[in-house]
Known about the structure:
Blueprint: E1 7-11, H1 16-19, E2 30-37, E3 40-47, E4 51-54, E5 58-60, E6 73-76, E7 87-89, E8 100-105, E9 109-112, E10 116-119, E11 125-126, E12 131-134, E13 146-149, E14 158-163, E15 167-170, E16 174-178, E17 181-182, E18 188-191, H2 196-206, H3 210-223, H4 232-247
The structure holds 2-acetamido-2-deoxy-beta-D-glucopyranose (4 copies).
One 2-acetamido-2-deoxy-beta-D-glucopyranose binds near residues 156 and 158.
Amino acid sequence: FRFLYYLVVVWLVSASDAKNCSEPPSVDNSIFVMHEVEGQALGTYFCLQGYHLVGKKTLSCNAFQDWDTPTPTCHLGHCPDPVLFNGEFNSSGPVNVNDKVTFQCVDHYILKGSSWSQCQENHTWVPPFPICQSEDCGPPENPTHGYFEGHDFNSGSNITFYCEKKYHLVGTQHQQCVNGEWSSALPVCEPAPKTEFEKALLAFQENKNLCQATESFMQRLKESGLILEELKYSLEMKKAELVAKTLL
Ligand SMILES: *[C@@H]1O[C@H](CO)[C@@H](O)[C@H](O)[C@H]1NC(C)=O
Ligand SMILES: *[C@@H]1O[C@H](CO)[C@@H](O)[C@H](O)[C@H]1NC(C)=O
Ligand SMILES: *[C@@H]1O[C@H](CO)[C@@H](O)[C@H](O)[C@H]1NC(C)=O
Ligand SMILES: *[C@@H]1O[C@H](CO)[C@@H](O)[C@H](O)[C@H]1NC(C)=O
């Protein structure tokens, strides 16, 4: 290792207030470049080849002519070390520019993203690192006004969704866990459509004219082929209620 101290301050700014700024904090293995944006003096640290930056790259010169903190640092390795939870990659030690690394997940995990990445000139990895996703699904959330049945949520398991009374299921009822995801979008429970009787009764209740309401209610029941007998009682009650109201 050669621990060379590199600090090259490049003055790109001619404005007089930028020159008033204090000396920028030194960062090992970096080049400091000063520039000006809309009258504001800024300074950017660039790590040398073989090092990558950790922290905030660009600092500004504040009202007290001091540079913001904290100062970044340049760490060994042209790009940051690869990371992959629940997986492995074939790289150890500091990364050099153009190094290529390949990724693999441990058992029961599935690779999502690219299986390789390369360290670029600009100290970044392209394409971005993949992730290792568990092939198990875990329990889904109960739908609002519904529930599911099933005990296993690992790969290949099946679950079935149900809705409470007066709600009906919209979507796929039977789902299978496939590679960490349920086979389709989870279903929802929506209010069930009203029966013909409920619709007729609603229209009856909303109609202010009792005679007309009764007439059209009977008409609707007849049209929809509903049998009146079992509804008579509630209708009588409703009628009595309305009459009482009219008399008050
Ligand atoms: C910078 O310093 C010069 C000379 O010392 C002074 O005239 C000027 O006002 C200073 N600028 C600021 C922004 O403080
Ligand atoms: C990782 O493996 C790939 C494919 O075998 C190879 O191209 C690459 O150079 C390896 N990288 C390292 C850092 O060994
Ligand atoms: C770094 O360089 C690569 C390849 O040239 C490019 O795709 C990527 O967008 C660059 N990243 C940044 C942050 O500039
Ligand atoms: C889940 O359902 C699928 C198709 O309906 C079937 O092939 C599979 O065996 C079931 N899995 C389990 C664990 O019961």
